[in-house]
């Protein structure tokens, strides 16, 4: 049986402790992690805004190490044309990306 596919929401990649936990679980083979360029941009932007002590060069190194550690954490496409009710707790972009990745779950911080 293959590991389930998990779309990782940006709020899980920042803070660092959650990012490290998700990376360790993905390395263990518990699940196959997926992300989108939008997810990557969102957590990166938030990190740089909240942590002025971290440079873009340092962040680029972190991202490269993440990809090297879990090369299967590839990009997912965002599906278009979804309609959700306004009270849906999952953002449209996350749901669309999960569908595009054929994800079994969306990992997000509440």
Break the fold down into its secondary structure elements and pairings.
Layout: E1 4-8, H1 10-13, H2 16-27, E2 31-34, H3 37-50, H4 56-69, H5 92-100, E3 105-107
Parallel strand pairs: 1-2, 1-3
From the alpha-carbon coordinates, what is the Rg to the nearest angstrom? 14 Å
Tell me the span between the first and last alpha carbons. Answer: 29 Å
Shape field: globular
Unreliable runs, pLDDT <50, ≥5 residues? none
Largest sheet: 3 strands, parallel
Strands ordered across the widest β-sheet: 2-1-3
Number of domains: 1
Number of distinct helices: 5
SSE string: EHHEHHHE
In percent, how much strand structure appears in the residues?
5-15%
The total count of strands amounts to: 3
Oligomer: single chain
Supply the helix-strand structural class: mainly alpha
Overall mean pLDDT stands at 82
